[in-house]
Amino acid sequence: PNTTLIREDLRGANLRGANLLRTDLYESNLTDANLTDANLTDANLYKSYLTNANLTGVNFTGANLTDINLTDINLTGANFTGACLLRVNLTGANLFVTNLTQANLTNIDLSNAGLSSADLKGAILRGATLHGAILTRANLTGADLRGANLTGADLYGANLTGANLTGANLTGAI
């Protein structure tokens, strides 16, 4: 990493548009921080705290967001291409027009999340919980949804070409 900010207290910080390329933010507290349009490409956010942070338009390409709680967070327009989001809680999060191409979302919780027009091309969603998620017009081309829970999900207009749905639960999905 270029910069090390391990376990730093950055609560309420205004980091709008900041270049945090390859920054190590392990277990840092970014509660209520403004990260709108920040560049966190290849950053390490493992076990960081992002409660109520503004993450609209953030570039998380290749970033490590393992073990993060992003419940009800607005991630509209964020870019997670190739990012690692293992064991992340995104319950109720807004991921409208978000790029999750090739992202590792194994065992992620996206219950009731808004993923309208999101790009999940080639994303790994093995064992993911997408109960009640809104995936209208989402691109799931080639996505790995093996064992995913899609009960009650809204898949209207979603592109599932080449997606692997082996063992997925689609009960009540539309």
Can you describe this structure?
The termini are far apart. The chain is mostly loops. It contains no helices and no strands. It is elongated, with a radius of gyration of 15 Å.
Percent helix = under 10%
How far from one another are the termini?
A: 44 Å
Nearest-integer average pLDDT: 96
If you compute it from the alpha carbons, what radius of gyration comes out, rounded to the nearest whole angstrom?
A: 15 Å
Number of helices: 0
Can you tell me the residue ranges where pLDDT is under 50 for at least 5 consecutive residues?
A: none
Total DSSP E strands: 0
Largest sheet: none
Strand content: under 5%
Structural class: little secondary structure
What general form does the structure show?
elongated
What are the salient characteristics of this protein?
174 residues; little secondary structure; 0% helix; elongated
List the helices and strands and how they pair.
Layout (H helix, E strand, L loop, with lengths): L174
Summarize the structure.
The protein is low in regular secondary structure. The mean pLDDT is 96.
